[in-house]
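RECORD TYPE: inverse folding
INPUT: structure tokens
STRUCTURE:
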């Protein structure tokens, strides 16, 4: 039974327990970002999908490694990941 955004569960003993709905993780965000042990958010670098012949070996090597998301974007991504 649903009652204005609050899920109403009936138990075996017919007592009403109010449970708030769970927050859902943004599906595309969970594929693009990961959280480190200290709580920082990591992302992969761009420009690694195509036109690789033009790029030097050194450039491709540096693009392989992920980087920590900028602090200005951190709160927005945390909301999407429901951290």
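DESIGNED SEQUENCE:
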């Amino acid at each position: 039974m649903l009652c204005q955004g609050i899920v109403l569960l009936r138990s075996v003993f017919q007592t009403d327990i109010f449970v708030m709905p769970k927050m859902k993780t943004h599906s595309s965000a969970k594929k693009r970002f990961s959280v480190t042990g200290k709580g920082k958010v990591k992302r992969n670098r761009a420009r690694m999908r195509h036109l690789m012949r033009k790029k030097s070996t050194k450039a491709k090597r540096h693009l392989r490694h992920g980087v920590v998301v900028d602090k200005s974007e951190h709160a927005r991504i945390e909301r999407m990941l429901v951290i």
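NOTES: The chain has a mean pLDDT of 87.
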